[in-house]
Sequence to fold (149 residues):
Amino acid sequence: ELPLAKSARMTDQVVVPQADLRHYFEMLRGSEFYVGVRAQRVDHWLCANAPHGLKCLVTFLDYECRLAGARSARLNPAADIMRYFRFGYPAEPSSVLAITVGLEDPAPTPEEVDCFVCHEAKLNGYRAELKESWKYRMVTLLYVIHCDS
Fold:
């Protein structure tokens, strides 16, 4: 159970947009607690909230597809990572970003995914410091994002 779930005034601080809405509905079948989850795709959430100046202390972008996306599901993790940095979501002076993607072309190694994330961060005035990675059929990369401005 999430510690924030016990405090009603804190639950609106946790937003978990989902890339896969079926997964979202499976998550919410129980009614034990509420964590501010909204039925909204990650790409839509990033675009819809861009004008509001929201800052994210912790962001976890969890995908079941390769970095270049899954056309059939209309998912594009690379574009979402670009939106995350270009719309200024990382909190200042630092925040945490975790990303899970499949290891297939055009980024078949954790190093290539890391290169993309670091490049996109740098283009937008951030520094992505890779802290840990876990490789299985996919890879999860854990970063500390530093604001360089």
Residues 1-12 have pLDDT under 50 and may be disordered.
